[in-house]
Design brief:
The chain is an alpha/beta fold. The chain has eleven helices and 14 strands. Bound molecules: phosphoenolpyruvate and manganese (II) ion (MN). Phosphoenolpyruvate binds next to loops.
Length: 355
């Protein structure tokens, strides 16, 4: 094998019948060279990712190639490693309390932009569940463009989300903007949302990586796909592999929609990465009337799910009113997605009845 081309990293592909002892021996060798390891245990074989930097890497590579149970050592050429398909060829399925992202079905998360009160969140949770949503969303800490806009109910909002989960059984995803909020979010919710504005907050990404909770990471409005994948790498490098990627629109030059929803990110991300990809057509378009067509397009493009804003009375919403659907509109959308998913050989994931 040749030199590493710009490769700080490599993967060790074990033989299909490699034993636990052989795998442990490889891990030990890597760690002795002061490098980090990430194990990917596939159906067929185990792959060991080597990350970090060391001048002894070339020596290590030679030694690993000669180790029993090792089939081959492959440099990873992409700047992102753990998120890449090279590291893990089969799709990752992220499990959030029984909701699955990446198993081939379409999982729909729905709920208001912001949690505004107990009644509002419970009513919305019941309505979206009845229409087929499998998870509840709702912001308690809101990243608002203006400091004078509603900033969220904070911990009180998290308590209301937990109440809504108790009432409906729907697992909850909600945003944290800093390490302190992240601790609170993990106390009350089931999945941490890293918002678009914080996609490159590396301290927060590391914190999310250390939390043993699934993470939903949204692409920044000015971030490239590579930057999104490298941001995700921060989370995974801390040992948290339960990550769902979300495209929510990037900055375009046209004002008819709030952002330019980049649906091509779906096939691109699914080619480059093994992680599930979902679409947020609400932030993506900023206008209610475009949410249904873009949701259908997202499912057709191969998205593993959607995150949609629904409010009992969007006109009175304290944030993002123009893009939130009424429960009735959401029901109609869900009934349109069902036959579409079937025609594509997929299915809509149903809420778990036992919860
Ligand atoms: C949201 O989900 O309400 C939100 C603020 O999303 P984004 O970070 O994508 O703007
Ligand atoms: Mn919003």
């Amino acid at each position: 094998m040749g030199l590493f081309i710009g490769g700080e990293s490599m993967i060790v592909v074990m033989e299909p019948r490699a034993t636990r002892e052989q795998i442990d021996a490889v891990v030990k060798k890597i760690q002795e060279a002061s490098l980090g390891t990430h194990l990917s245990v596939g159906v067929e074989r185990t792959v060991i990712g080597v990350v970090g930097d060391s001048h002894t890497k070339e020596l290590l590579r030679q030694s690993l190639e000669a180790t029993s149970g090792v089939e081959r050592v492959v440099p990873i050429l992409q700047p992102f490693k753990l998120v890449s398909r090279e590291f893990k060829s089969d799709n990752t399925v992220v499990d959030v309390k029984g909701v699955h992202f990446g198993d081939g079905s379409v999982a729909v998360i729905a709920g208001p932009c912001s949690v505004e009160g107990l009644e509002q969140i419970i009513a919305t949770a019941k309505a979206v569940k009845a229409a087929g949503a499998v998870m509840l969303r709702g912001g308690a800490f809101k990243p608002r463009t203006s400091p004078y806009s509603f900033q969220g109910l904070e911990e009180e909002g998290l308590r209301y989300l937990a109440e809504a989960r108790k009432e409906t059984g729907l697992p909850v995803v909600t945003e944290a903007m800093d390490a302190y909020q992240l601790q609170l979010v993990t106390k009350y919710a089931d999945m941490i949302q890293i918002g678009a504005r914080n996609m490159q907050n590396y301290t927060l990404l590391r914190e999310a990586g250390r939390a043993k909770y699934p993470v939903l990471i949204k692409r920044g409005p000015s971030a490239t796909i590579q930057e999104l994948l490298l941001a995700t790498e921060y989370v995974m490098n801390e040992g948290n592999y339960q990550v769902v990627l979300c495209e929510r629109g990037i900055r375009g030059f046209d004002n008819y929609t709030r952002y330019l929803l980049d649906l091509s990110a779906v096939p691109v991300l699914k080619e480059l990465s093994h992680l599930p990809v979902i679409i947020d057509p609400s932030q993506g378009t900023g206008k209610r009337k475009y949410v249904s067509p873009m949701s259908r397009a997202a499912v057709a493009a191969g998205a593993d799910g959607l995150i949609i804003e629904v409010h009992p009375d969007p006109e009175k919403a304290r944030s993002d009113g123009p893009q939130q659907l009424t429960p009735e509109h959401f029901r109609t959308l869900m009934s349109e997605l069902d036959p579409l998913a079937k025609a594509l050989g997929r299915r809509m994931q149903a809420p778990l009845l036992t919860r």
